[in-house]
Specification:
alpha+beta, six-stranded mixed beta sheet, 6 strands
């Protein structure tokens, strides 16, 4: 194992997961943050958050972990509060193709199939990416990773 891989395993052992944030230094592609280890430690899907700052994404992943540890169960396409202050969020499955493209640390860690979900959030005015009123820039900021194509 290299140093990065050792750090992933150490964080999973100490905190139930490792959190990875990825950003495009040119600002063209959206930021994304995801967990590795939650399937192993807590038996739940890994989480990816696309389109938010690394700091906020990290906080959301930790909030998800803490809520799961407290016994909360999350179901795709249901709405939940308290991830983003003042806004509901929902979840959707991440396709195998997108797991391989976006969740590289998780792919390395599991070496086999694992489940992952995407946290989906609305604009500050309550528009969801699939709404007819959603702008193209908002849809690009938060692309669907379900494998069904565009919103």
């Amino acid at each position: 194992m290299n140093e990065s891989e050792k750090k992933i395993v150490e964080n999973i052992d100490n905190f139930d997961c490792h959190v990875t944030s990825v950003f495009d230094p040119n600002g063209v592609e959206p930021n994304f943050t995801y967990s590795t280890g939650l399937t192993k430690t807590l038996g739940v899907p890994e989480l990816i958050v696309v389109g938010l700052s690394p700091e906020l994404g990290h906080s959301i992943v930790n909030n998800y972990r803490d809520r799961v540890k407290a016994g909360e169960v999350f179901t795709n396409k249901e709405f939940y509060s308290d991830f983003l202050e003042g806004f509901d969020v929902t979840f959707d499955s991440v396709s195998d193709e997108n797991k391989k493209e976006f969740l590289l640390s998780s792919v390395w860690f599991y070496e086999e199939e694992f489940e992952a979900i995407q946290l989906i959030f609305p604009t500050t005015t309550g528009v969801w990416p699939w709404d007819p009123d959603a702008t193209e820039s908002f849809q690009k900021l938060q692309p669907s990773l379900s494998g069904t194509g565009a919103w």
